[in-house]
Design brief:
The protein has one domain. Helices cover 0% and strands 56% of the residues. The protein is built from no helices and 7 strands.
């Protein structure tokens, strides 16, 4: 991954499918894809990931375009404000 700016980074993603554990598929039926991609950090809670890739095996599409919209959640407890004094 290369991050020339705090607003985006550039990376190469690899996705694959080999089959189930103990029941791998043949090399012809395996799926392996490579995606040059860019991640755009549009706000502290939102990210857009886009890329165009290609399949390296026979059972994979020759050209694949992808887009992912990501939202970050805060699963922790919300921070409480201290109680204001009562007069």
């Amino acid at each position: 991954m290369y991050q020339p700016s705090r607003y985006y980074n550039i990376c190469i993603e690899y996705d694959s499918y080999y089959g189930e554990i103990g029941n791998f598929v043949s090399l012809h039926n395996q799926q392996q894809q490579f995606f040059p991609a860019i991640n755009l950090f549009v706000s502290p809670k939102w990210e857009i990931n886009i890329g165009a890739g290609w399949g390296a095996t026979a059972s994979t599409g020759h050209l694949i375009v992808k887009g992912v919209l990501e939202h970050y959640f805060n699963w922790g407890m919300p921070k409480h404000k201290p109680a204001s004094p009562v007069l």
